[in-house]
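Exercise: predict the fold of this chain.
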Amino acid sequence: MTPTHGTGGLAGDALGAADEPAGGPGAEYEPEDRAEHPAEQEAELHAGFLAEAARWLHGLFGPADRATAAVRRILDVGSGPGVASHALAEAFPQARVLAVDRSAALLARAEARAAEHGLADRITTQRAEQPEEFARSGPVDLIWTGNVCRHLGDQQAALRSLASALRPGGLLAVAERGLPPRFLPRDIGIGRPGLQARLDAAAEEQVTARRSRLPGATSVVEDWPCLLASAGLVPAGTRTFLIEFPAPLDVPVRRHLHTRLRGLLADLGERLDLVDRLTVEQLLDGDACTGVLWRPDAFYLTAVTVHTARLCRPLESA
């Protein structure tokens, strides 16, 4: 795993925020609230990882000059506020990037971010709701999708839709799961030890319950190289990126953790016992030294795994 430090963001969950906490990355929001929005906050934490992942993808196309020549059209599916779009545009300077999301507000942020970095002529946006809309943008040379398939009932069908947008030789990169964020020691001095593990377990139960209610929900073994191969692609490599901010944390990371805990409490409250709910409330207390905004032992550690696969021949029409 590759450690990544720095500011920036992932925020690619918005095509279907079915298993996000309340107010999660896909939620609509007003521009003036963007500093408090989970997608923006996570973006500021994950941009270093995205830049490194984009450079890795560049290398999968071969020598620098060949990669630059080979990649002219990129699709960022579930773009959120456009941080991945920015990283991809920087890594592939001759390419145009289309950011696709279902949230008009997040697409507006992607457009503003592109303008802020002088990339408005190379990054455009498109609103989309369903997997079958992906292929309308093809053929493209590279597709990046971050945490999107988990929100779609039939993940295998979603991958086939993505694959159908590739030109022969094109690459699909799927960032799905990895390790959930860790930010608290086992014993935090309040409540019962092991709070973080119980929050993770409750969140996983929520994911399973919500996936079962998605339209066209289909159970699959989440073996991503196998799923990519079943979509007609040839697996091209998998890499895990470690994102780490050690204690003591800077204010922006603390704010993101506060927002995340607030969403978890709203979303998982009924799955937590009284002691754990009260403990989370104490962690959210902005004036208490035991709160996540102040405590010296809070940290941020997560990992994102990126699976890639290549289209080696034209896909047969369904």
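Check your answer against the key: The chain is about 35% helix and 20% strand.
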